[in-house]
Amino acid sequence: MSLRPTLETRQAVPTMEGAGVKLHRAFGFQDPSELDPFLLFDDFRNERPEDYQAGFPWHPHRGIETITYVLSGSVEHTDSLGNTGTLGAGDVQWMTAGSGILHQEMPKGNGAGQMHGFQLWGNLPSDQKMTTPRYQDVQSKEIPGVTDDDGTTVRVIVGEFWGKTGPVDGIAADPQYLDIQVPAGVRKTFRIDTYRRAFAYVFQGQAAFADASQPTGVLLEKEVAGQEVNIRDLSGDRTLVRFGTGDEVTVQAGPEGVRFLLISGAPIDEPVAWHGPIVMNTRAELELAFKELRNGTFIRAAH
After folding, report:
1. pLDDT digit string (tens) for 26-64?
2. Which residue intervals define the domain Pirin N-terminal in the entry (predicted)?
């Protein structure tokens, strides 16, 4: 077994998307090889309806998959193929844009006006860029969960983990998408296949992720449940942790426990030509996509 080194820890950055939705971006529109096959990750969390109600009106996608995971509130969606639906708390939508689709996503808060969810973009390999678009809307009750003896819980959204298999199927890049909660003071190790690129995104509580240079992951200033933890080195809310190569990730939960996403996938290792919501392999393919968008043939280009 080999511990994955922590290559980078950084905070998600406030930004604005759609018609004026305030959100935090952990990565995106940077070096696409950094977390290949993943291109972008947004945390849309707001307490004020005026910060999200304008939503994401009609816009195109081609060449990627978008993965939306809702924690609170709901998201209403409509697309150019006639699909409509609503994602509620705990639900997931995995949209394969493929050859091209136009859609809109309109967030709605819960009774207290709160809205929280995530959107991840996954790249498609060249031989699947122009596949037929499809949706997989998955209700919360369909997502398996498992609880370990120490109180650690895992929701398996995609992939296989601890004997459970997530409900989303037929996706490129062999992804694994886990929602993990580790109780206060618990130190836990999670296996990830070596061939995958991996990152964690902390969105509740705090934790220290062990590095290869400090394999215990145990730090020095405060004792939590019998273990010493240095509060200065804990990753907290809206923190991205990018891992190097290995087959294990070890996390030491902080004084209030921690909840984070652990996401990994097989790199595609292909050229990327990217502008806005369209991702192709070459500049010529990208230019053709926007030409079709302008002349009205964009959603008829599947083959």
Report:
1. 999 989 999 999 999 999 999 999 999 999 999 999 999
2. 21-121
N- to C-terminal Cα distance for the chain? Answer: 44
Domain boundaries, the chain: 6-265
Cα dist. 128→38, 68, 159 in Å? 15, 20, 19
| Residue 24 labelled as part of a binding site | no
- Report residue 121: phi and psi, to 5°: -105, 130
- Phi-psi bin for 100: left (phi > 0), alpha (psi -120 to 50), beta? left
In this structure, what token pair is assigned to residue 267? 């790199």
Cβ contacts of 227-235, under 8 Å, gap ≥ 24 = 227/185, 227/187, 227/252, 229/185, 229/254, 229/255, 231/206, 231/255, 233/208, 234/206, 234/207, 234/208, 235/9, 235/200, 235/202, 235/206, 235/207, 235/208, 235/209
CB 39 within 8 A of CB 52: no
3-state helix, strand, coil in the chain (%, to 5): 10, 50, 40
Determine if residue 103 is labeled as part of a ligand binding site.
Answer: yes
Residues 214-264 pLDDT 10s: 544 444 344 444 544 444 468 899 999 999 999 999 999 999 999 999 999
105 annotated to bind ligand: yes
pLDDT the model gives residue 220: 32
- For 6-265, CATH number out of 3.30.360.10, 2.70.98.10, 3.40.50.170, 2.60.120.10 equals 2.60.120.10
**Can you give the pLDDT at residue 229?**
44
Judge whether 116 is annotated as a binding position: no
d(CA 11, CA 20) in angstroms, rounded, equals: 21
Average pLDDT of 273-300? 94
Choose among 113, 115, 95, 105: nearest CA to 44.
115
Buried b (16+ CB within 10 A) or exposed e, 267-299: ebebebbbeebbbbbeeebbebbeebbeeeebb
